[in-house]
């Protein structure tokens, strides 16, 4: 058995070395094609405003994840990316279990990478003022349910509460990226588009679990949040909870909804106007509030504020 084990270990070592050599050859050899047309334009001028608009959402996710996992945010992890913008209101460390904390910490660092990629590619602006306070989340959940929850919802209370709060934010970024994707032309700027991190699978596993002390199941929370986003954006159903009626399920054959998508199981898309009406919580892209007390930054967001 010792000889077999040694032989197996040697073979595995050789395979690792060979694969490493192949990877090095592939990534260092000029014979590897770049993956885009030879004469393609990397960044179109008209791409810049749309990609900079996305930085508003990346800032929101970065500080929400970093603060919740680490107890500090972008100002300590990568201060130059904040570009002098004000620190978030009410951000704090969440009471997370070890596994959730590791995952959220990774998410936070990944958002730092996304911000760096965007700002070094299309430029950027100072981080807008963000409201990540428990009070702001409580108002949003009250708005979703149509009455005040008692006690007020606190996203930092425990891992499940945090997962529900996370359901509020990243999905908005996902449909926003899907919305601008057809309008992006440059291969560099289009490469910057990325899927949002969604806690849907984790929430679906706990769909029937009651969220204490509210006596509502996890699924109901997601449904109410999705309905609120649809009401605020006023553009029909582009958002769904983790449980749906058959007519909204994949091929009208399932009520499960791990991937929220349209009739053809393609991701929904939203315009910048729709995104702003949701994250402001006002239903009006000209009226700031919610996560952005003073509104978003960048030309697209500021023009809506300047031209009510």
TrEMBL record:
Kindly give the Pfam families that the UniProt entry links to this protein. Ferritin_2
Report the superkingdom from the record: Eukaryota
Q: Has UniProt tagged this entry with the keyword Transmembrane helix?
A: no
Give the record's keywords alphabetically: Signal
Q: Does the keyword Signal apply?
A: yes
What organism, scientifically named, is this protein from?
Escallonia herrerae
Name of the protein described by the UniProt record = Desiccation-related protein PCC13-62
Could you say which residues form the signal peptide? 1-28
